# Entry
Amino acid sequence: MKNAMRLRDKMTFWYTALTFVITAAFCAALYFITSYVLEGILEREVRLSMEQVIAQIENENGMLTFENEVPVSSTSMFFVTEENGSELASYGEDITVFDHVPVEENVFRKVKGETGEWLLLDSELVHVDHFTLRVRVAASYALHHQVLSALRILFLIGVPLMTLIALGGGFAIAKHSLLPIRKIINSAEIISQGDLSERIPAAYAKDELGELTDTLNLMLANVEAAFVREKRFTSDASHELRTPVAVMRAYTESLISEPGLTADQQDSLQTILAECTRMQKIISQLLTITRGQEGRYPICIETIRLDTICESIADAMMEQLTSKDMCFECAVPHDFTMEADQSLITQMLLNLVENAVKYGKHSGKILLTAVKDGGQNVITLRDNGAGIPKEALPHIFDRFYRADTSRDRSGTGLGLSIVQWIVQEHGGRIHVESEIGTGTTFSVFIPAAFAPADRSIGSY
Ligand code: ADP
# Structure
């Protein structure tokens, strides 16, 4: 996965984000509800104090007194004034701070004093005998603020902590839940590399992922069976066709040498003979491929000399090279050895050189080189022929694929499939670079420490 965010990270992100939003919303709601409730309590407290004070004022021989001891604390205060505003009594520590605040009957107001905020309430005019009075009560917000500031601290620590826990927990849950999917991906990667016998480990049989695993395994078993059937069919069909084509070819060859044939008849028989030869080539190539895929092709790894193979190829191709006036240069160092199957490597180089001649231009050049590079044998075949169109490059190793069928009738579209199979059998890889009109370069990389490829019947 390149730039895209992984599912595990997405799940962790959304889980953490959701936990953060829910926790923050819950804390904010709790904060505002607490503030609202505390405000209500304070208002009730102020109203109650006001009622208590008013109820206790009495006229004792023309003097205003209180029936009982007036309850005064550091968090509340009250004043009794005459109608004109002149003060009759005041109780509390910081009583002068509200002098400048105008009277507003029965309206709660938040006022800033020297020792913090206060909730202020003025009563309506009260009549005690011939006295007309007004009572003003104030209660401090100190406790209210203490509770809210404690809540704020709790939330400032709690929300990030919850988010961190959600991040860790979410990551662990996502990782654990996606573990079976990782196993499925790993198995699918092995299968995509060619091993159809691979199965996904069925460790989660009870849940949806278990069902998915079972279904995929069943599908793989069916695909493998179909694939094996298809390979057997190709192999059996090729085998069965070998004899009839050989018979057809033998009869055609004997007919051509019969005296008294017209020129047209000669031409027709030549065409049949050419097609028989082509069909024999296809059949033999198909047999090589299917036997190789079924692991029935005998492979013998030994120390081989590439320079001598190169010479034998030059000899084998002499006729075709001469007919096109082409030059084949073999720049393989003397005594160049490698661990490989002699006949397969010969076949591989022969296919590549045949193509270079077939698609090469008249008087063209073919260069074969080999070097040892970081634990690999690198064999390169370069020609200055027609080149391969860019859009055809990804397909040239496919069976029966031919980039330009009009260029050569003798091709089968199987040569490069065989080359690729041989390279894979030697644990290597093949790379092609080509430009129309300039030429083509095939590079084969074969590990010096040879690791045989998996030749099980499930491989493709
Ligand atoms: P074919 O029998 O048609 O040559 P191959 O499998 O050997 O089949 O090659 C597949 C196709 O790749 C060919 O049809 C041809 O179009 C292209 N090709 C292979 N080698 C060369 C080359 N050296 N130069 C140009 N085209 C090539």
Notes: Residues 74 and 93 are 7 Å apart (CA to CA). The chain has a mean pLDDT of 87.
